[in-house]
Amino acid sequence: MSVLVDDDTRVIVQGITGGEGKFHAEQMIEYGTNVVGGAVPGRGGQEVAGVPVFDTVDEAARETDADASVIFVPPAFAGDAIMESLDSPLDLAVAITEGVPTQDMARVNKRLSEVDTKLIGPNCPGIITPGEAKLGILPGNIFSSGNVGLVSRSGTLTYQVVDNLTDRGLGQSTAIGIGGDPIIGTTFVDALEEFENDPDTHAIAMCGEIGGEDEEKAARYIAENMDTPVVGFIAGRTAPPGKRMGHAGAIVSGSGTGTAESKISALNDAGVEVGDTPEEVAEAIEDLL
User: Is 20 annotated as a binding residue?
Assistant: First the structure.
């Protein structure tokens, strides 16, 4: 089994006529993802990457029976693109775009609480169920099918942990890159709940980083709700307070909140082993299984 996406997932690509949208649509199709259409205002009637383009997400979803969308739209328009996907008959939207204005994401966040559609991202690499479906920019060749779930704020850390898992013969059920912005759709807790409810996910790798309190919230959730074992990794242990490190959400406040130490401590208190390197994360999961 898997979570959120599988080989039955029917995908549309918002922004498919742009360079990145077209390129990654072709990459997803080559991987085996069931991409059934695209959505770009004013471009309806065209064909890109072998699939029809529609003017709106709603039309694309209804005409193709799609249930998921991947968003490759410039930052200034990404908020509206996400809102359009949330107001359509889709189950899942995956926003790859980096630099979506915070005020736009605040509006999206409010709408998320009112609809059933789930959002992954923005500023994320996407989601993959190895051998079945890839939605986003993840390099499919490093993944293999198996029983380890993975959730990460960082695309690069995702790839490093997966590479170490695959080298040990430990395949993945699903890998989710939730994104590193301050306001995102799917959180660690949301992803952990999905994996906990998947009988074929036997262990979970959780890759966090400095900034915010999502990892601390995840630690509380793990302690109170989870039987599936989790192994953690926290990036940014040497980051100075007040300086943004890469992601917009990766910043330690002057008061000391959001530090790597606070996150590692919270996870340890929840019974989660935290590796010092991606290799140690894979080793710990290998020991669990």
Answer: yes
